[in-house]
Amino acid sequence: MKSVLNQFLFITCLLAVTGCASSRQSEDAPPVADAVSPPASAQSAIAVAEPVEYGSFTRDQLTQAILSEMGGQRGHYDSATQSYYELAKETRDAGIIRRALQFASATGESANVLELAELWSSITPDDIEPQLLLGYQFLETGQFELALRHMTRVIELGGNVDFAALTARTQDIPPIQRAAIRNKISELRQLWPQEVSLHYALIQLLDQDGDTATALSELDKLENQIGESPQTFLVHAQLQQKLGQSDAAMRTLLGGVERYPENRLLRFSYAQVLVAAGDLPAAREQFMRLARQEPEDFETLYSLALLNLEMEALDDARSIFSRMLDVGYRNNESRFYMGYINETQGQFNAAIGQYRQVQMDSNNFLNAQRQVIRLLIDQQRFDEASQWATSLTAGQPRLAELFVTIEADALMTAGEFGRAGQLLDNAIVRNSENTDLLFARTLLHERQGDMAAAETDLRRIIELEPNDARALNHLGYTLADRTERHQEALDLIERALVISPEDPAIIDSYGWALFKLGRYEEALTSLSRAYALFPDHEVAAHLGEVLWVMGRQQEAAQVWGEALEQRPGSELLLEVMQRLKPESNS
């Protein structure tokens, strides 16, 4: 019985060698194009054994094939990949090459994938699969002309290929290179007008070249040729949005949703346009319909939950996030937003519990832990806040310093200046050259009105880091705004501006220092630029004051009014308006 079993196992292993000494493949075999995009794990990519026809190999070659296959089945993917690669080059057998490609793709050996695909193509030049594989492999490496050549060969051999997959990647290539691709696509469209993806590819290229109106015209021609489809509606709306026709794009998508009510991509795109237009109730209805269509589509449910948060439908959002936690989907995001909901509803201990569970690998980690520390401090649980911050940073000095600044900021916000000062002083004793800690203490000194101490810390930062634009700008602005040392302030800000010439905060400081020096025209130029880059209420206050002093009161009032619409109740804006035009605040 044992010998029969051993023979059966041997034959099973032999059958796992795909297509040895044969270029024919089983009808049930998956297409080789699947190897272009490696699966989630190597095991899933190579575990499926395919029926095989095997023939004349040397004993050593056959043994190597069997051992390679067995190695792969046992998880030795790297050695199996290398063994199959060498065997494929030695035998030049299409079946062996095909299996070698599956291993190479699954283990990320992109150079081997390309070499093996070219070998396969040279052996069987009329086989569609290696041409398709080469086309997409060259796409991955950005060699678009070579990709186009092999994709064209697939069409010549009677296969199917999506040319729009190529032009979806040509947005950022040089215009001259895109023009060459566009000309070739145009030629191919003349040869094979029935290939719809060639039409879409040309439309994409026209749009990428900035000729969106012509792209839309070409789409209209295509619609007349093939009729309406979900894709024509989607592309039509995208082009309309590019042309600034937002209302028309919305109508197009609405028409698409009505024509194809079960198409989820159309409905999702329509919902996104509604969100962008600020029609949140209508967008919410669309997301709810999507959720009803596919109750297990948790990404759609996540979008719906975020929309509920935006609309302050907190209980509805909580229900969705709870469900997501039950199935383990987006745990970190769900914990963070559950914490936010609890905090908003006054359930502070529950909020702390949720925030604490947000993991370090999450984008929300720092914000979540900042909220934990702040909420603990708000409840005067100072030791617990400090212990929590310490527990998060054990063995990570840089993270420890960051959490010191977070804790200090929370203490300052709570009015606990003494505790914040002690915390920062102790940290700076341990690391006297940490500029982030020094800057945090600068902010504390300013909150306490100790400008001399603030200047001392800022100058220490500049001594340690002469190109620290943040410190140069902060000290320069402080001197311009709170002292008569305006020229010294301008010199510091000019240094910062050389380092970060496009930073609107530094440009604003520069304009303010010029204003203090009485150089109004230069100040206006700088502040106008800062406001265009960053229409913040503080910049608006400065720009308005310069305009007012220059006798352009109507323009000043307009700037202040626009800023107040974005930041109602801004104390900074109201103060400058009251100071310069008392009746403006009545």
Description of the molecule:
The termini are far apart. The protein is built from 33 helices and no strands. α7 (128-140) runs antiparallel to α8, α25 (435-447) runs antiparallel to α26 and α28 (486-499) runs antiparallel to α29 (504-516). The protein is an all-alpha fold and 586 residues long. Among the domains are: 1-161, Tetratricopeptide repeat domain (Serine Threonine Protein Phosphatase 5, Tetratricopeptide repeat), CATH 1.25.40.10; 466-534, Tetratricopeptide repeat domain (Serine Threonine Protein Phosphatase 5, Tetratricopeptide repeat); 535-586, no CATH class. It is 73% helix and 0% strand. The chain has helices at residues 2-15, 42-46, 59-73, 77-91, 94-106, 110-123, 128-140, 144-156, 164-167, 175-191, 196-208, 212-226, 230-242, 246-259, 264-276, 280-293, 298-310, 314-327, 331-344, 348-356, 365-378, 382-392, 397-413, 417-430, 435-447, 451-464, 469-482, 486-499, 504-516, 520-533, 537-549, 553-566, 571-580.
Give the gist of this structure:
By secondary structure, the protein is an all-alpha fold. Among the domains are: 1-161, Serine Threonine Protein Phosphatase 5, Tetratricopeptide repeat, CATH 1.25.40; 466-534, Alpha Horseshoe (Serine Threonine Protein Phosphatase 5, Tetratricopeptide repeat); 535-586, no CATH class. It has helices spanning 2-15, 42-46, 59-73, 77-91, 94-106, 110-123, 128-140, 144-156, 164-167, 175-191, 196-208, 212-226, 230-242, 246-259, 264-276, 280-293, 298-310, 314-327, 331-344, 348-356, 365-378, 382-392, 397-413, 417-430, 435-447, 451-464, 469-482, 486-499, 504-516, 520-533, 537-549, 553-566, 571-580.
